[in-house]
Design a protein that fits this description.
The protein has 436 residues and is α+β, with helices and mostly antiparallel strands. The protein has 15 helices and 16 strands.
């Protein structure tokens, strides 16, 4: 095949119908689990003022420093495609006065995101996340419930066994000020052993040095002062409670004192689901508490906690685990016809079958019945209905079971009920299903 004239931009992918089965399945699970827990859906624009992310994510983070698609509007405003959702959701929360709503405010989303990173396996420039945010409550029981919801969704998708929940606390803002001083003292004089990124980040945000993946930085990090040495009693209590709640909920976890997460806005709880095989490299999602962010974005001080998961990564694990999402695109019935009278008659039949929730495809061309049966076969239709001039004259229709190759002639007026019965009423999605 010659190469196509155009290809999708580097780092982006078309989601073809077979892949969409996975996306639809994940969306269904997420919607179901979130609704059960009282969450309501939110969507924000795919781009925001650049400052929303600079302020919300911290301007020393990799995402903000290197990975954003930034552009200028015609009037010269700096805008950016969203690399994640928490900053945008918090912007919307403040803008729409959601602090007036009964607390906690529980929101969820399923959206595309954009990061200008080097494309590689499991890392794209446009990818999809679902996630949730709970605003207005600081109790560790909320952190536990957010983690439980994430864990439950992993279970529903069939990937929970492949993942390890890593969990840590990064304390309160005051704890971190103290800890940063200790780290700064420790790293001062050791700059030569740090990677270029860490050298640069050392003064502004030394905490990030603990999370660097470079070999030399990791060795230094392993000998650095421990957060637990400076952590205040309240922070310790929050973390201890959270672990008790997770035990109660029977969610397995691993404490990981080096986990700090890439974004600046976290406080207290941070967590990530890592691959049991490749560790952090292929994390499916993560989150944590961000008690300072709402205030940073111009709202009243509001405790909050959230989680986001990468859908492409989850799909990779689902495929690895041989999880097959249900195929709702299955063609149930193919209606074949020959001759103008039969063609006319087939049109209302197609619509009657569809109204009853039967996925129905009809041939409209002038092909022979044999050619139409080949098409029905290629579309993997379960049944074919054949309507020729003879059948129209006699008030009948031919019903063919495609897998068995057997067929029978039945009265035309019985066909819709017959198909509903054959396909099983319960598995059909009637036109009213969206009202339920
Ligand atoms: P983060 O907010 O960076 O922790 O991202 C949360 C999750 O989103 C990650 O664990 C990944 O599953 C997914 N993710 C982040 N960046 C990308 C990307 N560039 N391509 C695909 N998935 C991503």
């Amino acid at each position: 095949m010659s190469s196509p004239l155009f290809q999708s931009p580097k780092g982006t992918r078309d989601i073809l119908p077979d892949e969409h089965l996975y996306f639809s399945f994940i969306k269904k699970v997420v919607r179901h689990r979130c609704r059960q827990a009282g969450y309501r859906r939110i969507s924000t624009p795919v781009f925001e003022q650049l400052e929303v992310f600079q302020r919300g994510l911290g301007d020393t983070t990799d995402v903000v420093e290197k990975e954003m698609f930034v552009f200028e509007s015609k009037s010269g405003k700096k805008l950016a495609l969203r690399p994640e959702n928490t900053a945008g959701v918090v912007r919307a929360y403040v803008e729409h006065g959601m602090q007036q709503l009964p607390k906690p405010v529980e929101l969820y989303y399923i959206e595309p995101f954009f990061r200008y990173s080097r494309p590689q396996a499991g890392r794209y420039r446009q990818f999809h996340q679902f996630g949730f945010e709970v605003l207005g409550e600081g109790d560790a029981a909320i952190d536990a419930q957010v983690i439980y919801l994430a864990y439950k969704i992993n279970q529903d998708l069939g990937v929970a066994d492949r993942l390890n929940l890593q969990i840590n606390t990064i304390g309160s803002t005051e704890d971190r000020v103290k800890f940063k001083e200790d780290l700064l003292n420790y790293y001062t004089g050791k700059e030569r052993s740090l990677c270029e990124d860490c050298k640069r980040r050392k003064d502004k945000n030394p905490l990030r040095l603990l999370d660097c993946k470079e070999e030399d930085c990791r060795i230094l990090a392993s000998l650095a002062p421990k957060f637990s040495d400076v952590m205040g009693a309240e922070s310790k209590e929050h973390f201890a409670r959270l672990l008790e709640y997770l035990d109660e909920l029977k969610v397995p976890y691993q404490k990981n004192p080096y986990l700090v997460r890439g974004l600046d806005y976290y406080s207290h709880t941070v967590f990530e689901f890592w691959s049991k095989k490749d560790g952090a490299q292929n994390a499916t999602g993560g989150g944590g508490r961000y008690d300072g962010l709402v205030e940073l974005m111009g709202g009243a001080p509001t405790p909050a906690v959230g989680y986001a998961a990468g859908m492409e990564r989850l799909i990779d694990y689902m495929k690895e685990a041989d999880i097959k999402p249900p195929n709702k695109d299955q063609v149930h019935v193919f209606v074949a016809q020959l001759g103008l009278v039969a063609k006319k008659k087939s049109l209302p039949l197609l619509s009657q079958l569809r109204e009853r929730g039967i996925n129905t495809v009809g041939a409209v061309g002038k092909d022979s019945i044999k050619a139409q049966m080949t098409l029905a076969d290629r579309m993997k239709a379960e049944y074919a209905l054949i309507l020729g001039e003879v059948e129209v004259r006699e008030g009948t229709i031919i019903l063919r079971n495609m897998a068995k190759g057997s067929q029978q002639t039945i009265p035309y007026e019985d066909i819709v009920e017959k198909m509903v019965k054959l396909l099983g009423e319960n598995k059909l999605e009637s036109k009213k299903m969206w009202e339920e």
